[in-house]
Amino acid sequence: MGNGSIAISGVLAGDLDVGMGNAPQIAVAVAKGLPLQMIAPASLYSKKNADPNLVVAKDSPITSAKDLATATIGVSTLGDFNQLSVFGWFDANKVPHDKVKFVELKFGEMGQALQRGVIQAAIITEPQKSDAVRAGLIRDLGDTYIAIAPEIASIIWFSTKDWVQKNTDLAKRLVKAIFATGDWANNHTEQAGAIFAKVAKMDPALVTAILHRRVYATKNDKRYIEPVLALSAQYGMLPRPMSFEEFSAF
């Protein structure tokens, strides 16, 4: 699906039992009274496998956070994990961000938007980032995720409270399978890459060229989530503070 908002709509409508999204999006929905809960963290950001995610046009004069103090920045979904991390990155660099604007763009559109000057920076994930690098459209500027915590869940699995309550055993078995799969993928990157290429209908050579693959969660640890919830509330993305216990089904 194109982004987490579509997955949220599908889960709430009952078209999907379980979806994937990022923690701030789900937390905002929960704070607004929508009956969603995380069932497991999915992919993790880890300082050990850090990769710059904030990019600018290849020929851009921008070299620091200060240069973006009045910029327009592209993110895949407004109010998401990526936007949260940019706020943290500005604060870590002691640069005010009250004049920064954010626009919603598809990852595949960001390289061209940077070249046209529609936006001055963007967060692009793989494989679109590698595509844009090969096309000579972008260059790295910084790693914004490290501003949140050394290890955090960037994507999570979620469902409705009602589905989890009615299917508790199934949900627990699904979570066990998610973590077992994550452990296998973390330790078999070549085989996991081949599966990814097949499912995503990508050229295996392009997948191999992506040097920084995601790390997958193998347990439900509150330290993956609590910093995200705390900063979401701090930056006004959440209307109220939220605990891990309220957010997570297990």
Which key terms come to mind for this protein?
D-Maltodextrin-Binding Protein, domain 2, three-stranded antiparallel β-sheet, 2 domains, alpha+beta, 250 residues, single chain, five-stranded mixed β-sheet, 17% strand, 11 helices
| Physical arrangement of strands within the biggest beta sheet | 6-5-7-4-8
Assign the CATH class of the largest domain: Alpha Beta
What is the element string, with H for helices and E for strands? HEHEEEEHEHEHEEEHHHHEHH
* CATH T-level topology of the largest domain: D-Maltodextrin-Binding Protein, domain 2
Whole-number total of structural domains = 2
* Tally of DSSP β-strands: 11
What would CATH call the architecture of the largest domain? 3-Layer(aba) Sandwich
- Radius of gyration based on Cα positions: 18 Å
Q: CATH superfamily of the largest domain, please? A: Periplasmic binding protein-like II
Helix residue percentage: 40-55%
Shape: globular
The total count of helices amounts to 11
Residue-averaged pLDDT, rounded? 92
